[in-house]
Write a structure and sequence with these properties.
This protein has about 210 residues and is mainly α. It is built from twelve helices and no strands. About 75% of the residues lie in helices and about 0% in strands. The longest helix has 29 residues, at about 175-205.
Length: about 210
């Protein structure tokens, strides 16, 4: 396996070679869907554990920009849109695991649902445990039931959204700007949770394109 592994995986056709120079939304969309479909198919067909680990660690090695250029403009309820959200959640946790752990623990304590159980984090979950969890979920997307991985990421987002909401309430009187930022984060996480849950249902019906 060479260090150039990420290139052929994310560039399955000549269409992608023209992606960054193209302003045609239809061409960009076709390229995004083609790369997402090919990536998932190759990961599932490849039995080499190193291949999967390279995919899981992609943002750590290459950053988010390559993936953003591929998938960030895709519809939320599409395969590239779902993969984009999963990678974005992974990056946010690895970038700031302390805050992620704080929000997750607050959410776990206050959310009256089974989302924390579905997500699968230990109790309590510290920064290191959450980084392991999100990598495990992403690994499951490539090696296991993709719908389950989507549902687990959605549950994780709901727990964190609850934590961000409660922390925003705590800061509302003393630090309103911080409260606003946390509220915005909670809304974004809740939106991602809804998108990923719908994507899981579509995948089960073979309708996630």
């Amino acid at each position: 396996m060479t260090s150039d592994f990420s290139r052929p995986v994310f560039r399955p056709s000549a269409t992608f070679d023209r992606l960054f120079a193209s302003e045609d939304p239809a061409e960009v969309s076709r390229a995004a869907h083609a790369t997402a479909t090919t990536l998932l198919a190759r990961a599932r067909e490849d039995e080499d554990p190193e291949t999967i680990e390279r995919l899981i660690a992609f943002t750590a090695s290459h950053g988010i920009d390559d993936i953003a250029q591929l998938w960030s403009r895709s519809p939320a309820k599409s395969l590239p849109g779902a993969l984009w959200r999963m990678y974005l959640m992974q990056l946010s946790i690895h970038d700031d695991p302390q805050t992620a752990a704080l929000l997750y623990e607050l959410g776990r304590q206050n959310l009256p649902t089974t989302d924390a159980v579905v997500a699968g984090a230990p109790t309590p979950a510290g920064p290191a445990e959450l980084m392991v969890l999100i990598d495990t979920i992403l690994r499951g997307a490539f090696t296991g039931d993709f719908a389950v991985a989507l549902d687990r990421t959605a549950a994780f987002c709901r727990v964190q959204a609850s934590g961000a909401t409660h922390l925003a309430d705590d800061y509302e009187q003393t630090e309103p700007h911080r409260s606003t930022a946390l509220t915005t984060r909670a809304l974004r996480l809740a939106s991602y949770a809804d998108d990923l849950a719908i994507a899981a249902r579509l995948w089960r019906r073979d309708d996630l394109l």
